[in-house]
Amino acid sequence: MYWEPEKECMTKEDLEQLQLERLQSTLYRVGTHVPFYRKKFDELQLDYDNIKSLDDLSRLPFTTKQDLRDNYPYGLFAVPLREVVRVHSSSGTTGLATVVGYTQNDIKRWSNLVARVLTGAGVTKDDVIQIAFGYGLFTGGFGLHYGAERLGASVIPISAGNTKRQIQIMQDFKTTALVCTPSYALIIADTMMDLGINPNGLSLRVGLFGAEPWSDAMRHEIHEKLGIIATDNYGLSEIMGPGVAGECPELNGLHINEDHFLAEIINPDTLEPVEPGEIGELVITTLTKEAFPMIRYRTRDLTRFIPEPCPCGRTHQRMQRIMGRSDDMLIIKGVNVFPIQIEKVLFEIEGTEPHYQIVVERENHSDNVTVLVEVVESIFFDQMKKQRAMVELIKARLAAELGIAVNVKLVEERSLERFEGKSKRVIDKRAF
Ligand code: DLL
Fold it and tell me: How many A from CA of 284 to the centre of ligand 1?
């Protein structure tokens, strides 16, 4: 099931031709309308009229989050504000927020691409979609909302939070598709269990989850607890919001909407492209954005391209699910560790709840990591002996997965903070 088969299944040749034409017009747009890019091109003595092949992409400058901050709020817009019909902003958890804008055409294309992602996940106009992403400056709520309407589905714009009400609405309105962060899906599942509601009695059949990294083990847990197909979709506000990439029914990698986004994977240290199939940082150039075009935006998200063609028939490049952000990577005793590696292990151990937190402290010039793990009541209140055995088991499994030892502390069920939007797994107490 495709939304636009003529685009999603294009031959590589046609796609590359389209991408080149769109790249050229994007370069013209930013070169003439965005002083920041004009200056960068001048510094590099780059005549964008001479970009004649996609291979020339590597000659173009990168754009970073810092560049967006330096031009806060509207400095990188390529159209006058009067043509902007919407403004969103990223959460700004690490410093000043960044601001992005959309023209009328941008909103149309955005809705269309989100409709494409929804279709890839198996959602149709017959679905009743409950959007439990926050509506507001965050792109998740409005992005999915417009896409779902474009698809023709029935949209319930409930927004995030008030979990009991989410469940009530889900029951009463016969929701078939749930849209939220994967961590919030688990909170909904746990609350259902508390209320004694059997998810099998609901109409829910599919979930579209994104906006934060999540492991396959977590996907499995959501599937088990809610009895639904759990699909992954990816995007970021700087590039558009949701709708950049999404899974197809194969559930094996996310197709990047390559007719609108040119993706590269680079080594974040050398800034050179990695070998095909190797892990690195995803870099995206927008090809059709009017208000806020981005040239080689460094996402900080780590993934790899999946070189093999996808059995679903879509020709757009697949990327593996995001492992995490390079900013979230912990370096413990010289070893690189991602929170989702820890998550994967915890999900496999019986008696642990799917809620955890990673606390990093610096002691004697070395990072000290403690994983706080919620455990079911029966273990928490059990004899010390059983608790100790549990700690040892988790430590051993984590050591086997990560290759280094970390501390483990069991905490009472429901004692860790819950998040209705993006979850915060790492508490970094290191002083930099
Ligand atoms: O999270 C856009 C979005 C909304 C995507 C709803 C999907 C669904 P930002 O708030 O700007 O935008 O955060 C973007 O979130 O760079 C990734 O680090 C992370 N992220 C987004 N989707 C995924 C995903 C939205 N499927 C940042 N898997 C990105 C892993 C994701 N990480």
Answer: 14
Mean pLDDT, to the nearest integer, of 331-341?
87
Q: Using CA positions, which residue lies closest to atom 15 of ligand 1?
A: 211
Q: How far is the CA of 281 from the centre of ligand 1 (A)?
A: 14
Of ligand 1's listed atoms, the one at least distance from the Cα of 238 is 11
What was the pLDDT predicted at 146?
A: 98
CB 129 within 8 A of CB 154: yes
Got the DSSP string for 26-94?
A: HHHHHHHH-HHHHHHHHHTT--GGG--SGGGGGGSPPB-HHHHHHTTTTTT-SS-GGGEEEEEE---TT
Evaluate: CB of 213 within 6 angstroms of ligand 1: yes
Gap from CA of 106 to ligand 1 centroid (Å): 19
The alpha carbon of 388 is separated from its chain's Cα centroid by a whole number of angstroms, namely: 36
pLDDT range class, residue 431, cuts 50, 70, 90: low
Give the pLDDT confidence of 395-417 residue by residue, as tens digits: 999 999 999 899 999 999 889 99
Which domains can be identified in the chain, with CATH numbers? Answer: 1-327 (3.40.50.12780), 330-428 (3.30.300.30)
- Is 90's C-beta closer than 6 angstroms to any atom of ligand 1? yes
> Is the C-beta atom of 134 inside 6 A of ligand 1?
no
pLDDT at 367: 78
To which residue do tokens 């003595």 refer? 45
DSSP 249: T
- Read off the pTM: 0.96
Ligand 1 centroid–CA 181 distance in Å is: 9
- Among 328, 316, 343, CA closest to 401: 343
Residue-wise pLDDT tens digits, 79-121: 999 999 999 998 665 567 899 999 999 999 999 999 999 999 9
